[in-house]
């Protein structure tokens, strides 16, 4: 008996099969092209296995409310061919097994809570800082959703007085994602994030926005742990700067664990989402 997990991203799909002890026995990365072409490769990967259940953590926004017609669909994405695509329905048509369905960051938050940096906690948030900024929330060991899934990357932040960058979010311009996701680094400096020197002043600005957003998440949800992941968080020095910015902006108002314990990098680097998806598959099989 096997479980299948899909971490469906806008650039690539990571698919994995695990055994009942959650050991990954095979994993593949498939480039995200058209839905038809991508899913044909997904099926070719999983078909040889007798799966008990699958778990999908998908890029979004996605329809997450089982009571709505758009449940299981990818919603308003600029990714060609994927908007209004019935992703979950297609998978379920091919495999008649239980399929857990959530966002990529929710799956990552779940993976981190069960097996990663937030292990032993009841609640956490997971924030990815990459091409976009997105957050997932686990409360009482369950993924949180309401009228939809949280969209924590698009919260509005207080602009830094020295910052005159218009912001790059197509919807809001200067929301958190517009001001501080990976592409903003290049838009501000002309240099890709991975090539920027550690002593560049842009990092202080970025830490100001992310620290501020973390403060708002903590004031709203009071999670037990904050886990940070995504390409930009490969900058190890950023973690210290973000912690300091969080502490400075919180200004002692709310008592939190020491920032060094509270705000941490992912415990399952690059695998939080796929491990979370496999864990959700196991849950769905019960
Ligand atoms: P995605 O969000 O598409 O899944 P990533 O999490 O890898 O992918 O994020 C990609 C973004 O992160 C790009 O904007 C890239 O320039 C930036 N990035 C990747 N590595 C680094 C790094 N080491 N330092 C700073 N920025 C980085
Ligand atoms: Zn936005």
From TrEMBL:
Record EC number: 2.7.1.4
Record bears the keyword S-adenosyl-L-methionine: no
Domain of life, per lineage: Bacteria
Reaction(s) catalysed by this chain's protein: D-fructose + ATP = D-fructose 6-phosphate + ADP + H(+)
Keywords: Magnesium, Metal-binding, Zinc
The protein's required cofactors: Mg(2+)
UniProt enzyme class: transferase
Stored PANTHER family: FRUCTOKINASE, TRANSCRIPTIONAL REPRESSOR MPRA
Family recorded in the similarity comment: Belongs to the ROK (NagC/XylR) family.
Name of the protein this chain belongs to: fructokinase
